[in-house]
Amino acid sequence: MSFEYLFHFNRFNTYFEIPFLQPAKYCEAKDNLTIVYNDQDLEIPDSSNYKSVSIEANLKKVSIFYKDLAYFEISKNGKEIRVKELFKKNSRALFISKFLNHVIPFSLYQNKKLMIHGSGVSKNGRGVLFIGGSGSGKSSLSASLKDFKIIAEDSVIANFENKNCYVSTGFPLVKLTTKVAKILNFKKDESIKLPGDRLSRSYYPIKNFSTEKVLIDKCYILEWGDKFDIKKIEPKNFLANFLFSTYSSIPVNSCKVSSEILHRYASQFLSSVKTYKLTRNKKNLFNNNEEIIEHFSSTQSKSI
User: Fold this and answer.
1) What whole-number distance in Å separates Cα of residue 175 and Cα of residue 193?
2) Mean pLDDT on 20-40
3) pTM value surpassing 0.85
4) Residue 111: which residues within 8 A CB-CB, separation 6 or more?
């Protein structure tokens, strides 16, 4: 028995069910289909045996190892994913979260798509992205902007049309800590526990989820600091953060073709999206949301 799901406008046929997501409607077209197989005979590379997490990625093969959870191999331009399960029963939700948040983006990278590790929100078909290091508050900031639709909480796929940047949505879940979920009035009884998550987060279903292609006007690098601030950041200073926030070859620059593709995408992104650095005080969290929303609409020909 297999299950088919739609993520980032691409279809994934899996051997396992994702109980908290709706399967995709049947479609005969197989152009954007990736098959996910259970292969308990997969050999785990020796280099992975000594690390809790190990990732090697290029356009021919992606190997992702999570100790005591699973080993994934991606090949055939991202159209084939093989999985060796290593987890115990109570870790299935964490296994699925790694599949959704890491494996799927790497499969789309291998298909030469631009995958950005970030979150974002939209209104009336126009939106903004948030990027930054792990723990910088990308998901929680998106979830706190109640008058906007969430584009994605962890990764987006971007493409360019007529010198504009568009992104498509992922799946209607957001990862939050118990503290932040309580502040934002998410229901505890709707949470999906992720035992073993590095930041002790759970999934929460999103009601205001965007299901359309979104035109991106601005991108913000998130960081924590003493004072709230939004300032323009020049492309050359933004570039390093952007490259760090994309899915590409690992080790970095180990695949020449990947690097060329990524730098071409970066050039297109920077020529079509305004870039800023957004600094917030962790103690205040969402106190400055009105100022952030006001900045979304400033200096734009059309308000989002």
Assistant:
1) 10
2) 84
3) yes
4) 10, 77, 78, 79
